Amino acid sequence: MAPFMFIGGEGSVTRNHIDIDMSHVFITQFQGIKHIWLFPWEQSDLLYKLPYNFHSLANVKEPDFDEFPGLKYINGYEAVISPGETLYIPSGWWHYIQYETEGYSVSVRALPSSWLEKWRGFKNMVIIRNFDNLMRNIFKDRWFRHKVKAARSRAEKAIKKQKSFQI
User: Fold this and answer.
1) Which 8-state DSSP code applies to residue 45?
2) Are 76 and 39 in contact (CB under 8 A)?
3) Domain 2-165 has CATH 2.60.120.10
């Protein structure tokens, strides 16, 4: 387990992301109030996950359904934690965090128990991140544009899948 401290001012945000190492996270609020939105890994395409990256394009707090129609189909959780409260974020879950007030928290991370999640974390840290960095250095903005196009294409496929379940 490795603890991390997070400090933020009122209104500051951490954009929607998954943790690169695929850890389970227990986040305890010590001062201030933090608002957290959570989404399962399976909704990555609807969240416009950037390939070879651990962030999504869309703002889940203030969704633009015209630009990101996949957000109409996401199902997640919303939590507000205050001093003395702890929130568990499972391995691979997306989270968007906003400080409602200035404050700080400590998160304790634990590696996942499944070998699949451990492999994903290792692959993300050693292979995926380095590949993405290399491609960004070589292709610069062209690489980012390619990833945005791929994220939008995956979202369109995921939307079609969602629509096929509706009657």
Assistant:
1) T
2) yes
3) yes
How do strand 77-81 and strand 34-39 relate by DSSP bridges? antiparallel
Given a contact cutoff of 8 angstroms between Cβ atoms, the answer to whether 27 and 90 are in contact is no
3: tokens are 């603890």
The Cα–Cα gap between 95 and 76 comes to 10
Residue 36 CA: distances (Å) to CA of 30, 72, 86, 106, 158: 15, 19, 12, 14, 24
**DSSP per residue over 108-122, as a string?**
EEE--SSHHHHHHHH
Q: Please enumerate in sequence order all residues whose Cβ is within 8 A of that of 143, keeping only pairs 6 or more positions apart, or say none.
A: 135, 136
| 91, 13, 58, 54 alpha-carbon torsion, rounded to 10° | -40
Alpha-carbon gap, residue 25 to 138, rounded angstroms:
34
DSSP state of 42: G
Tens of pLDDT along the chain (167 residues)?
668 999 999 999 999 999 999 999 999 999 999 999 999 999 999 999 999 999 999 999 999 999 999 999 999 999 999 999 999 999 999 999 999 999 999 999 998 889 999 999 999 999 999 999 999 999 999 999 999 999 999 999 999 999 887 65
Spans of all domains in the chain: 2-165
Fill in the DSSP letter of residue 46: T
